[in-house]
Amino acid sequence: MNLFDRFILTLYSLALVVISLFVMATSLNLISSTYITSAIEEIYTSSQVGMIYFVAAAIFFLISLKFLFTSVRARGDRGRAGVSVHNPTEYGDVRITLETIESIATAAARRIRGIRDLKARVRAEENKTSIHVKVTVDGETPIPGLVEQVQQVTKERVETIAGLAIAEVTVLVSEVAQPGTGARVRRVE
């Protein structure tokens, strides 16, 4: 959640606290019923007051939808966190999460000269594990050789470290970094 979302959530929560306090005070008869009745009549009789309430309700509605969709999307991403690859050994079963395999693949591919940025995703199916790597290249290194090196290094490194058989490593070159854009080279040496 970024800073803007946190700020909106804070304001939203404070507004809900005020509304909750108002409803609780009303239910305990701490606020006069004539005040509430006159406020409701004002909504129906004055178009300006009615419009203010409508805009406030619409803003609350949109913020609620935003947080609802954000939480559903976050749950979908979190559901992937528990997914693991099963690797039986002679001493017992070993389970390695997809995030762990992605970290190993990312670390391996970052070491390759010519890679500016990358994102690795692992897909585990019934009998095969495959890795999809999306890379940004520097534009100075020949792409066919670079892609082949990413495939080879990533496959060998994951198989060595995790002890898993990797069926395939697919590489998508998504972008060529433009010289002078200030893009950092993310490489471990």
Largest sheet: 3 strands, mixed
The first-to-last residue Cα distance is: 32 Å
Output the structural class.
Answer: alpha+beta
> What would you call the shape?
elongated
| Helix percent band | 55-70%
Ranges with pLDDT <50 over ≥5 residues?
Answer: none
Q: Within the CATH hierarchy, at the fold level, what is the topology of the largest domain? A: Alpha-Beta Plaits
CATH architecture of the largest domain: 2-Layer Sandwich
Oligomer: single chain
The helix count comes to 5
- Using the coordinates above, name the CATH class of the largest domain: Alpha Beta
CATH H-level homologous superfamily name of the largest domain: Cation efflux protein, cytoplasmic domain
Portion in beta strands: 15-25%
Protein name: Alkaline shock response membrane anchor protein AmaP
Organism: Aneurinibacillus aneurinilyticus
Keywords: Membrane, Transmembrane, Transmembrane helix
Transmembrane segments: 7-31, 51-69
Index terms:
2 domains, three-stranded mixed β-sheet, 5 helices, Alpha-Beta Plaits, alpha+beta, elongated, 22% strand, single chain, two-stranded antiparallel sheet, 189 residues
Can you lay out the helices and strands and say which pair or pack?
Blueprint: H1 3-27, H2 33-45, H3 47-79, E1 84-89, E2 92-97, H4 98-110, E3 115-124, E4 129-137, H5 143-162, E5 166-176
Parallel strand pairs: 4-5
Antiparallel strand pairs: 1-2, 3-4
Helix pairs in contact: 2-3, 4-5
